[in-house]
Amino acid sequence: MSAAMNATTASTNLMGGADPAVMEAIDRGNAVVFFDVVLGGEDPSGNTVSSSEEAPLGRIKIELFVKDCPKTCENFRQFCTGEHLKNEQPIGYKNTIFHRVIKDFMIQGGDFIKHDGTGKTNIYNGTSFADENFIHKHTEPGMLSMANSGPNSNGCQFFITCAKADWLDGKHVVFGKVLGDESMLTVRKCEAVPLNGTTPRLPLKVVQCGEL
Q1: Which residues are catalytic?
Q2: What is the mean pLDDT of the chain?
Q3: Three-state secondary structure along the chain?
Q4: Diameter of the chain by CA atoms?
Q5: 104: CB partners within 8 A, 6+ apart
Q6: Helix/strand/coil for 191
Q7: Residue 201: which residues within 8 A CB-CB, separation 6 or more?
Q8: pLDDT the model gives residue 17
Q9: What is the pTM of this model?
């Protein structure tokens, strides 16, 4: 077990034991990951954008549909845990931002390369990997889906739906779902942050992530 995963296990124990919803997801053969999200503070480059302290928004727990989309899920999971290394250094979603928010549609993040929606990498070949399948659909708020720039162009970016988005079915790979009302409330808080166009005015940042 990695150091990141050990830390996650310890934090779970401190919070009073395992979440039944998490255990049910694991019993289904799926994995569960999390993001702890804050608003404000430093951007991913270390520049202080806000004079105020970081404001915690909450934790987003996500069930990954490992049995149906194993390759897509493993790519995402390793970027959550920090297991994937580049130049012997862990890379992934910790301290990355949600760079794009569209109310009543989605929140998008995962670009830890350029932080603006133009960066791309993956654990397999460093560029793009193919659409695994389109078994799951954008049926409701809280669906986790791969962002892309066309067919078979998956990398590290993802989005979480804030409403049904069926026009994306067959074009983006859905591979997970937000787990529980508290997690969805955190998504709603992210959806509601002040924006300049579709860009959060303050950094909307993942300060911790891992696997539960």
Answers
A1: 100, 105, 108, 148, 159, 168, 172
A2: 91
A3: CCHHHHHHHHHHHHCCCCCHHHHHHHHCCCEEEEEEEEECCECCCCCECCCCCCEEEEEEEEEECCCCCHHHHHHHHHHHHCCCEECCEECCCCCCEEEEEECCCEEEECCCCCCCCCCCCCCCCCCCECCCCCCCCCCCCCEEEECCCCCCCECCCEEEECCCCHHHCCCCCEEEEECCHHHHHHHHHHHCCCEECCEECCCEEEEEEEEC
A4: 45
A5: 162, 163, 191
A6: helix
A7: 193, 194, 195
A8: 66
A9: 0.90
Calpha distance 88→132 (Å, rounded): 28
51 contacts: CB under 8 Å, gap ≥ 6: none
Residue 166: exposed, middle, or buried by beta-carbon count in 10 A (0-12, 13-18, 19+)?
exposed
What are the tokens at 33?
A: 């990951």
For residue range 11-37, list pLDDT tens digits in order: 343 444 678 999 999 999 999 999 999
Say what the pLDDT of residue 51 is: 59
119-168 pLDDT, tens digit per residue, is 999 999 878 999 999 999 999 999 999 999 999 999 999 999 999 999 99
Structure tokens, 113? 């390369």
Helices 70-81 and 3-14, packing angle to 10 deg? 80
